[in-house]
Amino acid sequence: METTQAYRRRTSRIVKWLNRALLTLFAASLVLFTGFALFLLGTRLFLFNRALPGVYLHDVNLSGMSPEEIVAALDPALTYPENGAIVLRDADRNWMVKPAELGVSIDLHEIASNALAIGRQGTFLERLQQQVDAWYQGYAITPVILFDQVVGAFYLQAIAAAVDQPTIEAALLIEGTQVLVSPGQIGRSVDIIGTLDALKEPFGSMHDAVIPVVIEETPPIVLDASSAAESARGILGEPLRITAEGAEDLVLEPSELAPMIRFEVKGDAADSAYTVQLDPELLATVLAPRIAELERKPENARFIFNDETHELDLLQPAVIGRNLDIAASIETINAGMSEGLHVIELTFEYEEPMVGSEATAQELGISEDVSVVSTYFPGSSSERIQNIKTASSVFHGLLIPPGETLSMADVLGDISLDNGYAEALIIFGDRTIKGVGGGVCQVSTTLFRAVFFGGYEIVERHPHAYRVGYYEGGPGSPGPGLDATVFVPLVDFKFRNDTPYWLLMETYIYGNQLLWKFYSTSDGRSVQWSSHESNAIDAPKPLYKENPDLDKDEIKKIDYEADGLDVIVYRTVTRDGETIHKDTIKTHYLPWRAIYEFGPGSDLPNNIEVEDD
């Protein structure tokens, strides 16, 4: 039996032998691998910027070639774009075309780039595998085919010009006032995208082919048009009369109706029919010019408060608003014509006003006058008085709902000669000039004071640039700082009826007095106010300007002097001991000089300022 010591000696010899064998095997493998790697490395270094051995395309061996050599070698070999043949066929018509004419080309430079990439891309092992494959069995690359479909589509469009034909429905035609019928035709159109898709396969494999042109066919809907023709003849048999309450009838003669008639096919190929109607857009064009005549906005009734009975006396009846529903009217007209009617009424949408003619003072919460103010305009020209009357009249009997903001500019609308205004002096920039509507600010100032002393919420107010004598004179005048100017549409005066009751306004002209009355119901509010004046500045001395249109010694005053002044008006409106409005109204009046014009050569006062030319 072997001793332990002998066993250990024998085992040690075996282990040493195995170690020597493994070291020998490792060294041999290392030498082999290193040699192979050095071989490959040497090959790559030798073939720098050249295709590796074994790389080819079709029958052309590209081994060791530079990009320029590859391009030169492949150029005469890859002639498919110019030498290939594609036949495009539609029924019995053929078009022979080269692939190049359809946008096909070969990218030789990209092929060369792909050839050089073999064995030089990917991970180390992937590159090694490509090099081994190329060395032992060859490595085939594919051609890079470019297909410019824009070029192909352009070529196919020429074919489409010869192939395409429109779809023509069996149609009803009108010549003059006569109804005619025309036959239909199957529509054909080249599906350019579909045909291009069909060309991709032969182009990709670079072979000749016969490719059917892809055609889309659109058959007409076959109909018996006799019924629709009779309907059209019935429409053209007599005039169409379109009516509306309170408006003159609109009469369309057959010669006017004929160009408006449209025939529409409804249904499918198995069950279809023509409908006959007037073209909605053309009919709308005929109706649109009458909108202003036919439509009206809802208007509340206007009243006068009877101080004796405490009831409302109707001043102007309420107006029910109506809007022409053109779409519904067109449907009504076409529906009526399909039934053989020739007198058809327009369709409206109606809108009731908030306050009807039967409204009572109790319903509106109007029981007393809540603010009464007057302003005066002695010495005003007849034109200015006309404008005051015209502007104030539009507010007479006007009702303002609880919570609503009144815009004076909106109520006045267009201040123009057509609306009853005259030319009178107005403040414009730094001048007093003649303009349409001079005197309207007398109305805005009076309304502002009615709002101010009535304790209503002031939303927007603008003062005059300089003091105007009209607004500071007369019995009970509050003095400067309580005027308001309006210049439609840029400058406005607005206030809000911040009470729970309707507000009725009345305006009256008594000689040179404008009286403005608010009727509502007091909610218990009271007004305390005061004013503070400062920085009074005398008006500058007059300025004289020569006017060649005036005679010698003729002097004319064209602007009036006014002293400058800063005024702050304080208003506090309370109700049940609670402050609901606290206003600080600041006004900066500029000093204003008088301006005179004189004729050439006039004798002028001494110590005056004359404007230089």
How are the elements arranged and paired?
Elements: H1 4-46, E1 55-57, E2 60-61, H2 67-74, H3 80-83, E3 86-90, E4 93-97, E5 104-106, H4 108-117, H5 124-137, E6 139-140, E7 145-147, H6 149-163, E8 171-175, E9 178-182, E10 187-190, H7 192-205, E11 209-212, E12 215-218, H8 226-235, E13 240-243, E14 250-252, H9 254-257, E15 261-267, E16 272-278, H10 280-287, H11 291-294, E17 302-305, E18 312-316, E19 321-324, H12 326-338, E20 343-345, E21 348-351, H13 361-364, E22 368-376, H14 382-393, E23 399-400, E24 405-407, H15 408-412, E25 423-428, E26 431-436, H16 440-454, E27 457-460, E28 494-496, E29 503-510, E30 513-520, E31 525-537, E32 543-546, E33 555-559, E34 564-575, E35 578-589, E36 595-598, E37 609-610
Parallel strand pairs: 1-6, 3-11, 13-20, 32-36, 32-37
Antiparallel strand pairs: 1-2, 3-4, 5-7, 8-9, 10-12, 13-14, 15-16, 17-18, 19-21, 22-30, 23-29, 24-28, 25-26, 27-28, 29-30, 31-34, 33-36, 34-35
